[in-house]
Amino acid sequence: MSTLLCLAGIALSVIALFGLGVPAYILCPVAFVLSAIGGLARGRLSLAMAGMVLSAFVFAITSDGMTALLTSLDVNPRNFFRAYDGLSGLIGALLILGLTLLMARRHAPQGFETMLGASDDIDRVVNGVGKLASWLFVPMMIVIFYDVSQRKLLDFDNSIIDSPFYFDSTKLQELEWHLHATLFLLCLGFGYRYDAHVRIELVRDRLRQRARVWMELLGILFFLLTYCYLTVEFGWVFASKSYQIGEVSAAQTGLSHRWVIKGMLPVGFALLFAAGVSAAFRCVVYLFGPTYLNERSGDYAGTHHADLPKDVATNGPITD
């Protein structure tokens, strides 16, 4: 029953996002409360978090959400967001964080195992999307090969332009970067959870294991999640305005429906946000949980030099 409440909260948030009748300033608070109740009733932590975050985000960005509520209270939304956008986002984040920690405590004495389970759930989604998106390499390579081959053929025979096999080079080139951008954005979270991004390790690898995990956790909370939140918020506005005006390519023979590729920006960074939450859970478990969970949660305790001896790469030059 508790898990069903979380799923209901997610469903109401999606309905509010697409504006299917009931205003978001009604649906989103109801969705938030249902998700919170479901989580506190020992429902699946990952679903409860997803419901709370999604409902809060939809409430913040939709025109019939927080904007409509402020208007009904005779408050100018533009002035309010200009003055209190950061503060309101911080309050919302702290509320969700507090409720999440309270939900984890409700699962005591398996609270830390519950956090690892939520991390695993998030990883399944993020990694699944990343692996699925990796297949975009295939159509991207085909399009690039065809575009280059077609231009070479035109040097020998212009009659190909009148054949059904000819495609405008502008469309092909735009399709190439559309596929590349989608592939890159949808794999951001996947790359982070597999620790495949670039790190500056001159200082980090000389720290103790717990210090490395503390550095990772603080970086997630103060930089990664904050940046992802802002990118998703402004990216959604960016894509929705493109959809409203029916934006097309600036090139006369380019592709239409420009909002599709712009919509990948908030989607990709939302996945990266989820990957950051998953990594934060593992850092918290490593730092504050029982030692027998260190092996499962110590993703960010080791070093990252592939050419070092195995024991040094795992434990670092200085160990606890």
Write up this protein.
The chain is built from 13 helices and no strands. Helix 1 (2-17) runs parallel beside helix 3. It starts with a helix and ends in a 5-residue tail after the last helix. It is mainly alpha-helical.
Short précis:
The protein contains 13 helices and no strands. With 320 residues, the protein is an all-alpha fold.
Shape: globular
Mean pLDDT: 84
Which structural class is indicated by helix and strand composition? mainly alpha
How much of the sequence is in beta strands?
A: under 5%
Order of helices and strands: HHHHHHHHHHHHH
Helical region count?
13
Radius of gyration: 23 Å
Characterize the main sheet: none
Number of strands: 0
Which blocks of ≥5 consecutive residues have pLDDT under 50?
Answer: none
Oligomer description? single chain
Share of residues in helices: over 70%
